[in-house]
Amino acid sequence: MNQREKKGPKKNAKKNFYKQNQKERKQNQANNESDEEEQPKKHQKNQKKKNEDSEEEEKEEINTNKEEKNKNKNKKKNKKQEENSSDEEEKKKEKLADEIEEQMNKKKEKKEKKEKKEKKEDEEESDDEERRNKKNKKNKKNKKKEENESEDEKKENDDEENEDSIKPKIVEYCDLCRFPKEYCKYTHSLLLKKIDDEKEENEKDEKEEKEEIDTTKKENDEEDKKKKDKKKKQPTMVLIEQSRRGKKKHITYITNLEKFGLVLKDVSKQLSKKFACSCTVTKEDNGQECITLTGEFADDVLEYLTSNFDNIKPENCQVKIEKK
User: Fold this and answer.
1) Structural domain tally of the chain?
2) Which of 19, 34, 187, 235 could form a disulfide with 177 if both were Cys (CB 3.0 to 4.6 A apart)?
3) Neighbour tally for 91: CB within 10 Å
4) What is the pTM of this model?
């Protein structure tokens, strides 16, 4: 055989294979298209079933809810009926209790009225008895008074009869001696002596008191004169004191400048300019005014005062410096 004859059947086999494959593909495509057309229909059917099922479930739920609501309503109605019935029973019981209380109150009121009437009757009886007793007492008292009055009248009559028989004698008394005037001859002389003695003693006492007062006055006047003389004799001195305040600060005090006819404010200004420090006028505890300088200026102040003021001399100045 030729080579071409050998190759022929293989080529036909391939063609047949491809043809079969094409047919199968076409069938598969047709089946697929049919399936695709059928799928939405099936999906629609399934959705319809699901919707129907859901509607049925909703209806069932609505029905169940309605039944439950009806049951709740019935229960509420039953409860209201029971409550109304219980309220009616309670009202009936309250009415019965009120009626019983009213009856009891009426009975009590009746009893109280009876007791009050009995008390009034007893009180009226007791009042009548008291009135009777009072009347009897008054009658007894009146009888006693009458008897006493009659006895007093009898006694007065008896006394008058006795007075007529014996009359008393009237006596006049003296104002000084308080004795009858018949005895004034004997008592006045003694009284006059006593009065004179008392007057003399009083005069002596007054003289002694006056003498004592005069002596004390003279002594006081002499002491005052001595003090004044001492003050006059003592010369006026300008005191310059220097003291410490704290560890490092020093202060100088100047007093008695007024007695030399100086004005403290003017002097303080001059000193503050001279020494370049703070200078002020202050009052001490005694009420005396003085000049205060901050710093150690005792000797410098003495030199300044003696050189600038003629009235002040070093003899009239006194310096005191506090030691460390």
Assistant:
1) 2
2) 187
3) 10
4) 0.31
